[in-house]
Amino acid sequence: MNQDQVKQQLLAIEDAPLDFSVIFSGKQSKKVNGLYKPESREIIIHNRNFNDDNLMLYTAIHEYAHHLHACSRGGKLGARSHTAEFWAILHGLLQKAEAAGIYKNVFASSPELEELTELIRKQYIYQNGNLIKDLGKHLLRAQQLCQEIGGRFEDYVDRVLCLPRTAAKVAMKMYQYNLNPSIGAENMKIVAGIRNEEQRMAAESALLSGKSPDEVKVQLARKAAPQDPKEQLEKEKIRLERTIQSLQKRLEEVERELETV
Predict the structure, then answer these.
(1) N or C: which terminus of the chain carries fewer CB neighbours within 10 A?
(2) What is the average pLDDT across 10-19?
């Protein structure tokens, strides 16, 4: 596979708003397999690192994700290139490439790895999620009992269980929302933080369908409707008025204290 063929494959996966070049360095590198130069929009591939076109194509797709990320930001990249948005773009490209038969999922080529994957999913990811969800159920019961005896539940969590309050609240939400433990405890934390039920269910479904956590996070961020400028200014006005009132009150208190000194 030559440079032009790699570029054709990348464009077949997804078109790019800005043109780019694919360049084979003709070198071998111990540090990286490839890199992207946003200024010149060049994808550099150290082709002598590979003896397999499929593995080389993965590197090309990775660098192409950087290019598409730069395109979405007006042709520029920030100091931190591997953001959640980047990983979401990359994972989306890989899914499209696999569906089109352009790239073969290397993780599906090892029966031993596939067997181990199922073990990890069933005995660790699912079980861990189920345990945290079950913890949430018992914490809700503990909250009820604390109310019955007149004790503060937060104090019980802090001093008796020695748990961070945030962790306790998230576990309780996992149970209350009846989240699917198959997505794992860490992903359940993400989903439990979504207040909107429709968005929460969509996020859980996306994770169950194989979307990565970064894809789900970016999808949620994009779904947030842009706020009306007038409404945004009105809210800011209210916040500023409250701040001014609070500062004015404090100023009066300080002036009274100064009079008594």
Answers:
(1) C
(2) 96
